[in-house]
Amino acid sequence: MPRTGATTAILAAVLFGLSTPLAKLLVHDLSPWLLAGLLYLGSGIGLGLVRLARGVTGSRKRSERGLRGAEWLWLLAAVAAGGVAGPVLLMAGLTATPASTASLLLNLEGVFTALLAWFVFREGVDRRLVAGMVAIVAGAVVLSWGEPVSLAAGWGNGGWGPAAVAAACLMWAVDNNLTRKVSLANPADIATIKGLVAGTVNVGIALALGDALPAAPTAAAAMLVGLLGYGVSLVLFVVALRHIGAARTGAYFSTAPFVGGIASLAIFGEPVTLGLAAAAVLMGGGVWLHLTEDHDHEHDHDEMEHDHPHVHDAHHRHHHDGPQDGPVIEPHSHRHRHGRLRHRHAHFPDAHHAHRH
Fold first, then answer.
1. Phi, psi of 143 (to 5 degrees)
2. Any idea what DSSP says for residue 355?
3. What region does 126 belong to: left with phi over 0, alpha with psi -120 to 50, or beta?
4. For 18-31, b where at least 16 C-beta lie within 10 A, e where not — what string?
5. Calpha distance 179→181 (Å, rounded)
6. Model-level pTM greater than 0.90?
7. Residue 25 contacts residue 264 (beta carbons within 8 Å)
8. What is the tens place of the pLDDT at every residue in 61-87?
9. Strands 341-346, 296-301: pairing kind
10. Three-state SS letters, 203-223
11. How far apart are CA 23 and CA 30, in angstroms?
C-alpha cells in the first residue's frame, strides 16, 4: 500500500505537470478565470460521464463506496477552501504581485500542506521525511526562480498582493488535508464534485467580469486538458492520500513543476537550464528519501468501525456471513469493526495508523 500511495502521487504530479504547458497553449485565447473554470469543468463533467457510463454498463467497481454522513461536510469544506477561495485569492493576488514573486510563493502550498498535516492533523513525521520535503520544495523554488524577486513590489498597494497568493496556498493546503479525511470514499466521486463546483464558480466569475465563452474547439481542448490534468490527476491524488497521508502526498505532488518544465522542452523548444538540472537533483533526492523511508515501530490500534475498500490482511481478519465466509483476497467494501491490536511493522499515516508519535 505505501508503494501504491507513492506511485499514484507521482502519477498525479505527472498529469498535473503536463497540463501546465498544455494550458499555456490556450491562455492567449482565454482569460485566467475562464481557463481555470473550463479546466475544472472538464474534470467534473468528464469524470461524471465516465461514472455514468460505467454505471449503465455495470462495470463500476463494487469495492468503492460513496460519501456518507459527515464526509459530505468535510468535502464541502474542502471544495470551499480549494475550489472557491483558493482561485479567487490567487487571481486577486496576481493583480498586485510580480509573476516571478508569485511563482515562488506558490511553492508554499506543499509547505503548508505538510505543516498542517504534522501539527494539526497529527500525521507522523521524522527527520528523513522533513529532509525529503525540504529538498523537493527547494527544487521547486529553484525551478520557479526567474526574474529578480521583490516582495516589496507586491506590498506597494497596501501589502495584499503576496499575502493573497500565500493565503491561496494555505486554502489549497487546507483542501488537501480535509480531502484526506474523506479519502476512503470513491475518489472519482470526490474529483467529480470538486470539478463541477470549482468549474461552475470560476466560469461564473469570468462571465460576470465580461468574458465570453470561447469557440467550441477551444473550449473542448481546455476541458480535455482539465479531464486528464485535473480530473484523473485528482483521482490519483485522493488514492495517494488514502494510503500515505497528506504530507507525503503533497511532497510527491510538488514535483509537478519539474514535469511541466521537462514537457516545455519538447513543446516550446525551451533550453535545458542550470536551474532545471539543479531542480532534478534536489527533487530526485527528496523523492528518494521518501521512497526509502522505513517508519517501523510498535503501535496500538484502538477499536474502530468504518467502511472502505480492503482485503483480508493483518488489519482485516473478520469473516463474512454467507457465501463469502472466510478469506477474501479481492478488494471489497463493507462496514466492519477492528478490535484493539498492538503490533509492529512498517506503516504510513493511513486510515488505520492515525496514532500520535
1. -65, -35
2. -
3. beta
4. bbbbbbeebeeebb
5. 5
6. no
7. no
8. 566 788 888 899 999 999 999 988 998
9. antiparallel
10. HHHHHHCCCCCCCHHHHHHHH
11. 10
